[in-house]
């Protein structure tokens, strides 16, 4: 007999000989049978041999209990038989006869395991690259501060800017470590410094976005839209990478998560762009006078400046023109 | 204890009266006035009223001033600023005029917001004495008498001297050297023979006071309707007056050939007319390592619209950010900090819209500017706006110029013209010198 785990469509995810027990099932990589899924815990269940030779499945951790497919009752332990499968999330665990197993026993293995990272992922996974990337960003931040901030005490300012950048990278790294721990039950701070560095750069770019977009005249709205899309795509790609969407495992699920996250960011970005300040008698001026946006921006002849302000005049006429929007002096 | 007893006791303590007055005896009637001022006071008293504006919700006083009868049908003249709350918020305010014998509710017939005058309809209250405007100005140094209710302490008369028309002011004002106090606003200033020279309007302390010329009173009386207009039409008329004033006094500013000041490598507009006052300063940014040279000019007067809002004001400021040796990027960062400096304005959400801004890069013959124009509309005064232009040229050798032009209570057409002319007026000094 074999222990077989199949997905909801009946595809075999894993098979093990029935005497290869005890074994554990869960999403964490150190389980005997690794399986991902929305309802699967890092350490989901354990299969043990009973004294009478039968097999039982026991729920682990904070699991609410196990159940048979279609039966709502949860129990801490269920007997595993050929006729009574046990639900493991959306997957199904059962015993199958050797005859039913088409493949030779030797071929039965865990589902497609992700091998050691290759290519750029292997490079990014190296510890020296991880810490090096964070250090590079800190130094870059200090250099930017040194050459742009108009203060006398440049050393102290650069030091604090470096500290700020380091703090931002650390926050992102801690965030990803927390996610990894929740997903796999194991993830350490420092494993995600490359992604954290990228996310810090993206965050800083986003904070610059608002002032940049106002500089992109005359098609400010169009350019602002493009910038938003570019930023969102960058964030999305970073998230894809972090969620290992490029791996073959659970590609669809990861894609859904990444697409959802990107959509949320886009909605937030659009909402922020459409946000209108409340009334205030204080006037804020936006100012981005660095040379590079200047060189991108076309200038209008002064003789048409007044004429070009007609749009602003119309905007002002509309503001409060709706009687409902005008505050009655009697109120 | 009655008020009378209190007064008698107080007088006794202060030693102001003989002890015999401490007894409960009737005061003898005042003798007829003998001095010239006393006679004038006695003669003019029936022409003067106390004006009070009340907030109806709280049923409490919100403004007190003076006024005087200037027409046989009972029309009263006062300052606009005395009854401005009634004009701006008629649903929450009412005004009353009080003579020695009567108190009646008054309505606004006409307003000259530019000169700070108003004509009120006092209904059945008829003039005891009329004050007729003196249409020719008296000689400088002539003695004048100003009458009113200083700090609501009762009708008072003060002596002063006429010192001619005030120069360097956009609206005509007469210089009165005499002790005017709050509450006397709207009261008359007359010659010793009782002819109206002007209306008390403002004081700067130290007996430096101002009057609205009597000919403006005559002009307003001539155009005042016989029945009170609606609040909206009153406000619309005010807006028209302010717009005309702005066109007349500000419309021609910054034309070609206007005076310029040299600031570093730039030349920029300064004191466009003698009615402007300009001054300079420089700020050393100790912690930031750069210096800001400031040159600013202002009309130094504005039309009073309400406690929160003025109009017809124009001021501008040039700030030269000097940071040689800082490097371009750090200099630009310093310029950004100056450019982004906030500005604070008066006004409420009921009175104006929020500011709307538009950024542009603008090219003149001499320079290319980064500009930001922000404007808000006066909600109750149709066609009037407040606008601020902030601009900085992209050029500059180790220095950057940030300039700000602020116009308040002007038509948008004027805003459009002014910003163009103002930017054209800023040039590179080297080019101007032919270097």
Low-confidence stretches of chain A: 103-113, 216-220, 323-331
* Domain unit count of chain A: 2
CA-CA gap between termini of chain B:
87 Å
> Helical percent range of chain B?
10-25%
- Can you give the mean pLDDT of chain A? 74
Tertiary shape of chain A: elongated
Give the % helix of chain A: 40-55%
The structural class of chain A is alpha+beta
How many individual helices of chain B? 8
Assembly context of the chains: heterodimer
Q: Report Rg of chain A.
A: 29 Å
| CATH architecture descriptor text of the largest domain in chain B | Beta Barrel
- Which percent range describes the beta-strand content of chain A? 5-15%
Got a strand count of chain B?
A: 25
Q: Which strands sit side by side, in order, in the main sheet of chain B?
A: 15-16-19-24-23-22-21
Proportion of residues in extended strands of chain B = 35-45%
Stretches of chain B where pLDDT falls below 50 for ≥5 residues? 1-24, 431-435
- The spatial strand order of the largest sheet of chain A comes to 4-3-5-6-7
The coarse silhouette of chain B is: elongated
Task: Provide an overview of this structure.
The complex is a heterodimer of chains A (331) and B (435). Chain A is an alpha+beta fold and 331 residues long. Chain A folds into two domains: 2-98, Tumour Suppressor Smad4 (Sandwich), CATH 2.60.200.20; 120-308, no CATH class. Chain A has helices spanning 119-125, 127-148, 154-184, 193-215, 220-242, 251-274, 291-296, 305-308, 310-318, and strands at residues 2-6, 12-17, 23-26, 33-34, 45-49, 55-59, 77-80, 86-88, 91-96, 282-283, 300-301. In chain A, the strands form two sheets. Chain A has a five-stranded mixed beta sheet, with no helix packed on it. In chain A, strands 2-1-9-8 form a four-stranded antiparallel beta sheet, with no helix packed on it. In chain A, a hairpin with a 5-residue loop joins strand 5 and strand 6. In chain A, helix 3 (154-184) crosses helix 4 (193-215). The longest helix of chain A is centred in the middle third of the chain and has 31 residues, at 154-184. Chain A is elongated. The termini of chain A are far apart. Chain B is an alpha+beta fold. Chain B has three domains: 1-30, no CATH class; 36-229, Thrombin, subunit H (Beta Barrel), CATH 2.40.10.120; 249-433. Chain B is built from eight helices and 25 strands. Chain B has helices at residues 3-14, 36-44, 84-88, 214-223, 231-250, 328-339, 412-424, 429-432; strands at residues 48-55, 60-69, 75-78, 93-98, 103-112, 117-121, 143-148, 156-165, 174-177, 188-191, 196-203, 208-213, 260-263, 266-269, 277-285, 290-298, 303-304, 310-311, 313-322, 343-344, 356-363, 368-377, 385-393, 399-410, 427-428. A seven-stranded antiparallel beta sheet of chain B has the order 15-16-19-24-23-22-21. In chain B, a hairpin with a 4-residue loop joins strand 15 and strand 16. The termini of chain B are far apart. The model of chain B is unreliable at 1-24 and 431-435 (pLDDT under 50). Chains A and B meet through strand 10, strand 11, helix 8 and helix 9 of A and helix 6, strand 20, strand 21, strand 22 and strand 23 of B.
